[in-house]
Amino acid sequence: MRRKLRKSRIANQAKRKVRAMRADLNAWQKDMRGTMGDIGEATREARDAVGGAMERFENWGQDNLPGVADAVKSQPFRACAISLGAGALIGALLLR
Asked: Which of 14-18, 54-58, 72-76 has the lowest mean pLDDT?
């Protein structure tokens, strides 16, 4: 009889623990859904911001391309030296 009571108590404790774990898992799933929604929203905002910046940069490049082309044609060695220096500077910054 004592064994049955003890087994029953152990079974009840196990059931309570399983219920608590399920409740914790459900709460975690709810939190993760909210987090994923927030990440999706932040991604959309970042994509929109980058898209606008890229469009402005593209327009700026198209507007300034003829002037740069003329400068390279008139002073090709200076243009090469400037681009080599800029490449070395960017490379040094990226290696840090």
From this structure: 54-58
* Per-domain residue ranges of the chain: 2-95
Spatial separation of the C-alpha atoms in residues 68 and 55, rounded to whole Å? 19
pLDDT band at 1 (very low <50, low <70, confident <90, very high): low
Give the span between the Cα atoms of 32 and 40, in whole angstroms. 12
DSSP string, 15-79: HHHHHHHHHHHHHHHHHHHHHHHHHHHHHHHHHHHHHHHHHHHHHHHHHHHHHHHHHHHH-HHHH
Question: Would you tell me the crossing angle of helices 76-95 and 2-74 to the nearest 10 degrees?
Answer: 160
Which residue has tokens 């608590």? 20
Tens of pLDDT, residues 29-40: 999 988 998 898
Stated length of the chain: 96
